[in-house]
Amino acid sequence: MFADRAKIMIRSGKGGDGHVSFRREKYIPDGGPNGGDGGRGGDVIFEVDDGENTLIDYRHKRKFSAQDGEPGGKRRCHGADGADLVLKVPAGTVIKEAQSGQVIADLSGDNRRQTILRGGKGGYGNMHYATPTMQAPKYAQPGQEAKELEVILELKMIADVGLIGFPNVGKSTLLSRVTNANPKIANYHFTTLSPNLGVVDLEGGGFVIADIPGLIEGASEGAGLGHEFLRHVERTKVMIHLVDAASVEGRDPVDDIYKINAELRAYRADLADRPQVIAANKLDVLPEEEGMDCPGDMPEHPLSRLKKEFEPQGIPVFGISAVSGQGVRELLLYVQQMLRELPSKLVLFEPEYDPQLHYTGQKLPFTVEKSSEEADTYVVEGPRIERMLGYTNLESEKGFQFFQNFLRENGILDQLEALGIQDGDTVRIYNLQFDYYKE
After folding, report:
1. What residues contact 113, with CB distance under 8 A and at least 6 apart?
2. The pLDDT value given to residue 226
3. Model confidence over 122-133: pLDDT tens digits?
4. DSSP states of 296-356 as a string?
5. How far apart are CA 169 and CA 207, in angstroms?
6. Which of 267, 275, 416, 431 has the fewest Cβ atoms within 10 Å of its own Cβ atom?
7. What is the reported pLDDT for 265?
8. pTM of structure
């Protein structure tokens, strides 16, 4: 089964917590702190696998997690780092943030491996927080939280040339004739339910061509399988627009070209402006063009009509028969020359969303305890809290409000409430003491 789109949840590893411990050795009853640091959480990495050409592995499993870091231990032991999670995808996969649809990364060309979510940093053990005034710190830094993100994976095929047109105009037949691809061919709509890639071999250099499954009116709005396939046109440099010149199903080939270009433009504004070649197919069931410009009520030959309509717009028209091969080589040689004259740079999608910007900062190390010596008193300690008290003017209303916000934003007030603090109870933070009243 071909799968070119998937939505998954990825999670990096949580950083291991720092450890609180103290030296307990014979003849050293009051040893200093020796709690070790926590290990780093694992990253989530996407990597190109040349053996993959579909996203089917992400259709049946939706959640992927890197390993958490191990907590620190006694005797300055550092916790083990969590293992990274490497997710393999085909070349051409674009990773997007699910809610906004913004591009995070395009794994194409030279960009074959990219870290999408970084694991949380491990927390410092209490050995880092000893000071001349606090020689036995009872707090360590928690590990940084894991990061979660829902992403959309979209496979946008990497092809030089896109073969586009309505269903049943002969795209699969042409692809099977000019490449080594073996698409299924039959005479009904949407025979091709997945894009097919093939390589055209020509003297002087070949190119990759993609058969984009038959489009219909409303494809740009998601009608039929429009969105599922239009994305594969986005990287192509040249489009061969195949039409049924014989109107076997009663379609007007000129009208078809305008309709498909309108769908391309509605899906993405610049698509319809990319270089195009029109291939008027099924000449084998049409009379010869020569002598068809007859007087009276005889209709104009379809190939003449197409050339008269589109060649003044700079779009060349070739008459071909995908079944017999008539005119096919001339078409391919012309496309080869077009590609030589175009920049060789791959069409890439620039990043628009940086997951790292949405996960900044790390929890503060602090302790919140109920005093065992004084009734209805709670003690808060932590190195950054201590430093902050040194430069904050708590006698001013603005300074005290700033300090309250600091306690709230770092979860200290939540921990006080979890311990059961009541209005009027005392909170002691180093040399500061105040009564607690819930806002």
Report:
1. 45, 46, 47, 48, 107
2. 45
3. 988 888 877 776
4. TTPPPPHHHHHHHHHGGGT--EEE--TTT-TTHHHHHHHHHHHHHHS------------GG
5. 22
6. 431
7. 85
8. 0.64
